[in-house]
Amino acid sequence: MNTKTDFLRRLKNQRDTFHQDLLYRFLNPPERDLVKSIFKGFHIYESNPTAEYARVIVSDAVLEPNFKTTLLCSSYRDEQLTHRDVLGALMHLGIERDTFGDIYISETHIYIEVLSELIQVFKDLHQIKQDFIYFEPIDAFPSEFKERSESITLFLDSLRVDALVAKAFNIQREDVKGLIDQEKVKINYFPIQKYTILVKPYDIISVRGFGRIILTDDIGTSKSQKIRIKCELLR
Predict the structure, then answer these.
(1) Residues 130-148: pLDDT tens digits?
(2) Is the CATH number of domain 150-234 3.10.290.10?
(3) 3-state DSSP call for residue 141?
(4) pLDDT for the residue 221
(5) Calpha distance 39→191 (Å, rounded)
(6) What is the topology classification, in CATH, of domain 4-59?
(7) Is residue 227's pLDDT more than 80?
(8) This model's pTM is above 0.85
């Protein structure tokens, strides 16, 4: 998938020549929306509708979908390890982004859902920074799974997305605008193009290269009339 236009052209061709179920690699939300818009009237299944990256099956019949994915898990020790580190290590191996889903990091383990036919490729990753990594297949996330995050309280003049991102990651607002221009900032997994968009409770703001901010519903006003908001920061 080179561009949005290429992907759209491919979808239309597949719709016009449809003769069997279609199983796509891991798609982001805008791509999944394109699939849904082109294949109206078909049955569409997503491996994880709430994730940023999910596999999609298109069928003309009701079925029990088999997404042909495997959940991999590895322990780690580096307390400074981030999603960016894991993603960078995978990209360094030449692994394409549409071959795996979201990266989840708990206090002790890394979890990645991958294409089942490429398990060995991912198992070839043995080091991230200075930490030893060894991925093994598991059946499911542990029941007590919780992503590693940092709780922070921010005091803002407004709830504009550029103000929030600048404060959360301690970067200049002009730099945030540059990230937005490059479509590196997403709200609820969709790229944004305006700096002035207002965020609201439960929004997920993703900033490529920095991490994610998850807003809570705890919003108030400080004595100095600043907007007070609590967030979960995932790096």
Answers:
(1) 999 999 999 999 998 999 9
(2) yes
(3) coil
(4) 84
(5) 23
(6) Ribosomal Protein S8; Chain: A, domain 1 (3.30.1370)
(7) yes
(8) yes
